[in-house]
């Protein structure tokens, strides 16, 4: 099965795109996003969605002019409207005192957050690296599941193809792409996993380790889905001020594992807090809920406050 | 907390030993099992269990005379009855056409299967290596959970201590131990993980990767326990001939994930089939159950036959 058919199946199987959707492809000019752009362009009539593209100049390194040029040329050829943005990532990193990689990610999501439905060009190699990175750094089942195929307005239509397949697709179709040199900089942990650890494991331990990690991630996703069955129904719609209030006695009735999943659902899916939340924070919130004493509160990273009041638990 | 107190808590927390239990410690003469022997000896009066030891000479390599001598001396000092056995592992490997490691494992379990309740000396480093080995080789949540603290008559009381802690315990107590040279033979995949991969990951990626893997295994165990909730109740007692018969309509009513766990429970916990069962076999059995056509059957590895007859599914 070629890349395009695989992506077509993947989109349908996972319900990534519905008829009438307005999809914005996030493109960097690299092979993954250029292949994605071309494939989505070809599928748009059949699957009944409209396509535009969004490009952000990070201003981190040279060569972005060439990237942007490639994106402009191909959007022109495909007749796809392009929104180009700029972010001064080095200034952002200085201001927020984070690393360049982190700041670039932040800037990218800020830029993309304005669009209705965004297609990201992550491939299955990225998924393998993400899963292995999470395993090594320390994670639970959620991190083991890797990047989701779909979260909110973000979809990953080429997560079913390897980087080599997407490159080959570009070459076969005569589609130009730029090479991001920062991908080979082994100062980034992520790149060290890609360029040193994974090749060593493939050579000395298991040549099929990529497939093994992808299967494990799939198992974790299935397991999580089964464990989370009905959890989302316990979370009422958020208030106008963005806070979420749960029924404390309902939450107390859950097993420990499901209570954690409930807290996780509120934090991630409702309050958008993904990072820096560890087991101690879960324990603090779970303890608060189990104790159920009115007026008690705890503060989590990113300024999230959790308060117990009269049989309810309020996250804000 | 020192090793002995940790083991004490571990035994109580996991319900490994009950009052009146007759525990047999499987000892090799190495530091892990010698420390376990001494700790169990000290705890036996307080926790109310009796203790004996079992030693198997594998006849794989030289130096076993010294191992056996150490075991005999210390069992004598502690006043612990010792059962010593012998297995011609090289001959067994030739006869069954397996590797030496595999044959030794087989011989060990045959020898130990005769005892009422057996304590195995695996430590937390072994657990880390097992989990990483499973991840690299390819596994689902079950393999990710690592070695169980307790399975049937087997318990692992020192799984909460590192190898270094158990060695230090022996040294502090003046307890002799033998070093198993085969542990440093990197021809074994397991040893390559121990001696090459883990040190490289600790050095270049995360010095706390051991804890990260142990936490992940704990999460997988909790997740599996939550997913398996009530599954064991669906499996009736086995017949006198060792076969297990399920109600097909009850099995058909389960979600895919829980149906797999049900099949896994029958195969592992009832028929004792652990290895060589892959996703295709699960799919075959699940398909048989879903189709529910009388007289249909499939054959799994290790000669297990699964037959659908008149609304029931028979495993034999």
Automatic annotation (TrEMBL), chains A, B:
<feature type="domain" description="tRNA(Ile)-lysidine/2-thiocytidine synthase N-terminal">
    <location>
        <begin position="23"/>
        <end position="196"/>
    </location>
</feature>
<dbReference type="GO" id="GO:0008033">
    <property type="term" value="P:tRNA processing"/>
</dbReference>
<dbReference type="Pfam" id="PF01171">
    <property type="entry name" value="ATP_bind_3"/>
</dbReference>
<dbReference type="InterPro" id="IPR011063">
    <property type="entry name" value="TilS/TtcA_N"/>
</dbReference>
<keyword id="KW-0067">ATP-binding</keyword>
<dbReference type="InterPro" id="IPR014729">
    <property type="entry name" value="Rossmann-like_a/b/a_fold"/>
</dbReference>
<dbReference type="GO" id="GO:0032267">
    <property type="term" value="F:tRNA(Ile)-lysidine synthase activity"/>
</dbReference>
<dbReference type="GO" id="GO:0005524">
    <property type="term" value="F:ATP binding"/>
</dbReference>
<keyword id="KW-0819">tRNA processing</keyword>
<protein>
    <recommendedName>
        <fullName>tRNA(Ile)-lysidine synthetase</fullName>
        <ecNumber>6.3.4.19</ecNumber>
    </recommendedName>
</protein>
<keyword id="KW-0547">Nucleotide-binding</keyword>
<dbReference type="InterPro" id="IPR012094">
    <property type="entry name" value="tRNA_Ile_lys_synt"/>
</dbReference>
<dbReference type="InterPro" id="IPR012795">
    <property type="entry name" value="tRNA_Ile_lys_synt_N"/>
</dbReference>
<keyword id="KW-0436">Ligase</keyword>
């Amino acid at each position: 099965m070629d890349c395009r058919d695989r992506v077509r199946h993947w989109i349908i199987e996972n319900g990534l795109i519905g008829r009438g959707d307005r999809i914005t492809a996030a493109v960097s000019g690299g092979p993954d996003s250029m292949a994605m752009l071309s494939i989505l362009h070809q599928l748009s009539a059949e699957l009944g969605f409209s396509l535009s593209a969004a490009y952000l100049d990070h201003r981190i390194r040279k060569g972005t002019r060439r990237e942007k040029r490639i994106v402009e040329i191909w959007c022109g050829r495909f007749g796809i409207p392009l929104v180009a943005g700029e972010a001064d990532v080095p200034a952002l990193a200085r201001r927020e005192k984070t690393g360049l990689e982190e700041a670039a990610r932040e800037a990218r999501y800020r830029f993309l957050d304005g669009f209705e439905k965004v297609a990201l060009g992550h491939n299955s190699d990225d998924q393998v690296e993400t899963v292995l990175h999470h395993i090594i750094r320390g994670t639970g089942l959620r991190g083991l599941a890797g990047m989701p195929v779909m979260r909110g307005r973000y979809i990953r239509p080429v997560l079913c193809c390897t980087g080599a397949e997407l490159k080959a697709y570009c070459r076969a179709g005569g589609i130009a792409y730029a090479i991001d040199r920062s991908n080979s900089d082994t100062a980034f942990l992520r790149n060290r996993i890609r360029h040193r650890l994974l090749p060593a494991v493939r050579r000395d331990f298991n040549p099929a380790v990529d497939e093994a990690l992808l299967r494990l991630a799939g198992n974790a996703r299935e397991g999580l889905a089964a464990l989370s069955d009905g959890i989302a129904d316990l979370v009422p719609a958020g208030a106008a001020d963005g806070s979420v209030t749960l029924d404390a006695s309902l939450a107390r009735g859950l097993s420990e594992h499901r209570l954690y999943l409930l807290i996780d659902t509120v934090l991630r899916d409702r309050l958008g807090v993904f990072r820096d939340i560890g087991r101690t924070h879960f324990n603090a919130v779970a303890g608060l809920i189990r104790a159920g004493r009115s007026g008690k509160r705890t503060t989590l990273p990113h300024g999230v406050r959790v308060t117990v009041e009269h049989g309810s638990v309020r996250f804000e």
